[in-house]
Write a structure and sequence with these properties.
Elements: E1 4-10, E2 20-23, H1 25-31, E3 38-42, E4 46-53, E5 63-66, H2 68-74, E6 81-86, E7 90-91, E8 94-99, H3 108-118, E9 122-123, E10 128-133, E11 136-146, E12 151-152
Parallel strand pairs: 1-5, 2-4, 7-12
Antiparallel strand pairs: 1-6, 3-4, 3-6, 8-11, 9-12, 10-11
Protein backbone atom coordinates (compact mmCIF):
# COMPACT_ATOMS: atom_id res chain seq x y z
CA UNK A 1 0.00 0.00 0.00
CA UNK A 2 1.25 3.50 -0.84
CA UNK A 3 2.33 5.66 2.07
CA UNK A 4 3.52 9.26 1.89
CA UNK A 5 5.24 11.40 4.49
CA UNK A 6 4.04 15.01 4.74
CA UNK A 7 4.84 17.99 6.95
CA UNK A 8 1.95 19.16 9.16
CA UNK A 9 0.56 22.66 8.70
CA UNK A 10 -2.26 24.39 10.55
CA UNK A 11 -5.77 24.26 9.11
CA UNK A 12 -7.46 27.46 8.05
CA UNK A 13 -10.21 28.64 10.40
CA UNK A 14 -12.98 27.61 8.01
CA UNK A 15 -11.72 23.99 8.09
CA UNK A 16 -11.51 23.62 11.89
CA UNK A 17 -13.75 20.90 13.32
CA UNK A 18 -14.73 19.47 9.93
CA UNK A 19 -12.54 16.35 10.06
CA UNK A 20 -10.76 17.18 6.80
CA UNK A 21 -7.12 17.11 5.72
CA UNK A 22 -5.99 19.37 2.89
CA UNK A 23 -3.47 17.63 0.62
CA UNK A 24 -2.32 18.43 -2.90
CA UNK A 25 -3.41 16.73 -6.11
CA UNK A 26 -0.06 15.00 -6.65
CA UNK A 27 -0.29 13.36 -3.22
CA UNK A 28 -3.86 12.21 -3.93
CA UNK A 29 -2.73 10.68 -7.22
CA UNK A 30 0.19 8.85 -5.55
CA UNK A 31 -2.22 7.41 -2.97
CA UNK A 32 -4.81 6.52 -5.61
CA UNK A 33 -7.51 8.55 -3.88
CA UNK A 34 -9.87 11.40 -4.74
CA UNK A 35 -11.23 14.35 -2.79
CA UNK A 36 -13.74 13.04 -0.26
CA UNK A 37 -11.93 9.74 0.33
CA UNK A 38 -10.80 8.86 3.85
CA UNK A 39 -7.10 8.83 4.72
CA UNK A 40 -5.27 7.42 7.71
CA UNK A 41 -2.87 9.84 9.41
CA UNK A 42 -0.13 8.33 11.59
CA UNK A 43 2.43 9.79 13.99
CA UNK A 44 2.32 8.72 17.65
CA UNK A 45 -1.29 7.59 17.10
CA UNK A 46 -3.39 6.68 14.12
CA UNK A 47 -6.45 8.74 13.19
CA UNK A 48 -8.48 9.53 10.09
CA UNK A 49 -9.67 12.50 8.07
CA UNK A 50 -11.38 13.19 4.79
CA UNK A 51 -8.95 14.17 2.02
CA UNK A 52 -9.74 17.58 0.60
CA UNK A 53 -7.89 19.57 -2.08
CA UNK A 54 -5.00 21.75 -0.90
CA UNK A 55 -5.10 25.49 -1.30
CA UNK A 56 -3.31 26.68 -4.44
CA UNK A 57 -0.34 28.07 -2.49
CA UNK A 58 0.24 24.61 -0.92
CA UNK A 59 0.47 22.68 -4.21
CA UNK A 60 3.66 20.59 -4.52
CA UNK A 61 4.91 21.57 -1.05
CA UNK A 62 4.39 18.15 0.60
CA UNK A 63 2.23 19.64 3.34
CA UNK A 64 -0.96 18.42 5.04
CA UNK A 65 -3.19 21.00 6.70
CA UNK A 66 -5.12 19.58 9.66
CA UNK A 67 -6.80 21.20 12.67
CA UNK A 68 -5.71 20.94 16.29
CA UNK A 69 -8.11 18.09 17.07
CA UNK A 70 -6.79 15.99 14.18
CA UNK A 71 -3.20 16.80 15.20
CA UNK A 72 -3.97 15.76 18.79
CA UNK A 73 -5.68 12.59 17.57
CA UNK A 74 -2.59 11.69 15.50
CA UNK A 75 -0.19 12.68 18.29
CA UNK A 76 1.57 15.28 16.15
CA UNK A 77 2.21 19.02 15.97
CA UNK A 78 2.75 21.73 13.37
CA UNK A 79 5.99 21.20 11.37
CA UNK A 80 6.26 17.55 12.43
CA UNK A 81 5.90 14.80 9.85
CA UNK A 82 3.07 12.31 9.53
CA UNK A 83 2.60 9.28 7.30
CA UNK A 84 -0.64 9.16 5.34
CA UNK A 85 -2.28 6.40 3.33
CA UNK A 86 -5.68 5.46 1.96
CA UNK A 87 -7.79 4.26 4.89
CA UNK A 88 -9.60 0.97 5.32
CA UNK A 89 -12.92 2.18 6.73
CA UNK A 90 -15.48 -0.10 8.37
CA UNK A 91 -19.09 0.86 9.11
CA UNK A 92 -19.45 1.50 12.84
CA UNK A 93 -21.80 -0.88 14.63
CA UNK A 94 -21.45 1.04 17.90
CA UNK A 95 -19.55 4.13 19.01
CA UNK A 96 -19.19 5.01 22.70
CA UNK A 97 -18.49 8.67 23.48
CA UNK A 98 -17.63 10.48 26.68
CA UNK A 99 -17.96 14.25 27.08
CA UNK A 100 -14.69 16.06 27.84
CA UNK A 101 -14.69 18.03 31.13
CA UNK A 102 -18.47 18.03 31.66
CA UNK A 103 -21.41 15.92 32.71
CA UNK A 104 -24.40 15.40 30.44
CA UNK A 105 -27.77 13.80 31.00
CA UNK A 106 -28.32 11.46 28.08
CA UNK A 107 -31.62 10.19 26.71
CA UNK A 108 -32.63 8.65 23.37
CA UNK A 109 -33.31 12.07 21.83
CA UNK A 110 -29.83 13.28 22.79
CA UNK A 111 -28.22 10.08 21.48
CA UNK A 112 -30.02 10.47 18.15
CA UNK A 113 -29.06 14.16 17.96
CA UNK A 114 -25.36 13.34 18.45
CA UNK A 115 -25.54 10.47 15.97
CA UNK A 116 -27.04 12.78 13.34
CA UNK A 117 -24.29 15.35 13.97
CA UNK A 118 -21.63 12.66 13.49
CA UNK A 119 -23.26 11.00 10.45
CA UNK A 120 -20.65 10.00 7.82
CA UNK A 121 -17.81 11.11 10.16
CA UNK A 122 -14.91 8.71 10.59
CA UNK A 123 -13.80 7.94 14.14
CA UNK A 124 -11.05 5.94 15.84
CA UNK A 125 -11.03 4.80 19.46
CA UNK A 126 -9.17 7.43 21.51
CA UNK A 127 -10.03 10.31 19.15
CA UNK A 128 -11.51 13.58 20.35
CA UNK A 129 -14.32 14.86 18.12
CA UNK A 130 -16.48 17.98 18.18
CA UNK A 131 -20.28 18.01 18.15
CA UNK A 132 -22.02 21.34 17.49
CA UNK A 133 -24.82 21.98 20.01
CA UNK A 134 -26.70 25.24 20.36
CA UNK A 135 -23.90 27.11 18.61
CA UNK A 136 -21.16 25.60 20.76
CA UNK A 137 -18.59 22.97 19.79
CA UNK A 138 -18.71 20.29 22.51
CA UNK A 139 -15.71 17.92 22.60
CA UNK A 140 -16.24 14.20 23.09
CA UNK A 141 -13.70 11.41 23.45
CA UNK A 142 -14.34 8.23 21.47
CA UNK A 143 -13.95 5.64 24.25
CA UNK A 144 -14.87 2.57 22.19
CA UNK A 145 -15.71 1.57 18.63
CA UNK A 146 -17.07 -1.68 17.32
CA UNK A 147 -15.38 -2.87 15.21
CA UNK A 148 -11.91 -1.54 16.08
CA UNK A 149 -9.95 0.60 13.64
CA UNK A 150 -11.22 3.42 11.45
CA UNK A 151 -15.02 3.40 11.55
CA UNK A 152 -17.67 5.52 9.87
CA UNK A 153 -20.95 6.54 11.51
CA UNK A 154 -23.88 5.32 9.37
CA UNK A 155 -27.65 4.91 9.76
CA UNK A 156 -26.97 1.41 11.13
CA UNK A 157 -24.67 2.68 13.91
Amino acid sequence: MNEIQLRVGDARQRDVGRGIARIDQRTMQKLGISAGDVIEIVNKRSTSAIAWPAYSEDQNKEIIRIDGFTRKNAGTAINEYVVIKAAKVKPALTITLGPVDMRLNVDDDFTNFVKNRLMERTLVEGDTTLVMMLGHAIPFTVTKTRPHGITKVTNET
